[in-house]
Amino acid sequence: MLKFFYSAAPNPMKVALFLEESGLAYEAIPIDGKRGDQHTPTFKVINPNSKVPAIIDDGHPVFDSNAILLYLAEKTGQFLPEDTPGARGQLLSWLMFVASGLGPFSGQAVHFRKFAPDSVPYAIKRYDFEARRHWQIVDDRLARSRYMLGDSYTIVDMAVWGWGDRLTYMLADDDIMATYPNLDRFMQEIDARPAAQRAKDLPNRHDFKTEMDEEAMRFMYPQLFAADPAL
């Protein structure tokens, strides 16, 4: 059975949605970042980068959320666009857009606003601006079609959904969806899917640590406690 190493963060939740949509049998294995599970030697064999999600499928590890989505979609033949060079190109382009831009800028926006030990106004402004710019690109795309690749529900939509579910929190804006009405419509549609409801419920099955205390900060942001190499 496929093993799914996860937490409730946006990237693992994308994969949780695929697993629930596809009907693949899987074992969910919690990796609690605040308790340092991602840094254990056992997990680092699966993902040397010490991050979730990761899977083991038929004994083979796969890590990075968008790589897992593509791997599972191609293995099962599910949630892919039509098999043409143009559709394939759009799939890869938008999947990498999420991986290289949408996710990282959104993540840095929330990090510098809520978790950085010192307030850095430039960093807050830069990442907030870039996150909002990327989400506007998504909203503009969704103004043209029901889903990111047209009328077909694909892994690109799952990748967007994982991050869109946290948008209000990440950008500290309770009215953010009024800025992105097409994204709002898209998110509500996916949220209403039974698979999305099951994916959201998955973390409730495990006892994840919620307190962001010093121990959690050491595991989540070890650079804060590392010695300065210049000294």
UniProtKB/TrEMBL annotation:
Q: Ranges for the GST N-terminal domain?
A: 1-80
Instruction: Specify the domain of life of the species encoding this protein.
Output: Bacteria
UniProt xrefs under PROSITE patterns: GST_CTER, GST_NTER
Q: Which N-terminal residues, if any, form the signal peptide?
A: none
Q: Which residues form the GST C-terminal domain?
A: 84-212
Write down a Pfam family by its short name: GST_C_2
- Which PANTHER family does this UniProt record tie to the protein? DISULFIDE-BOND OXIDOREDUCTASE YFCG, GLUTATHIONE S-TRANSFERASE-RELATED
Instruction: Please give the name of this protein.
Output: GST-like protein
Where does this protein come from, organism-wise?
Chromatocurvus halotolerans
Q: What is the lineage of its organism?
A: Bacteria, Pseudomonadati, Pseudomonadota, Gammaproteobacteria, Cellvibrionales
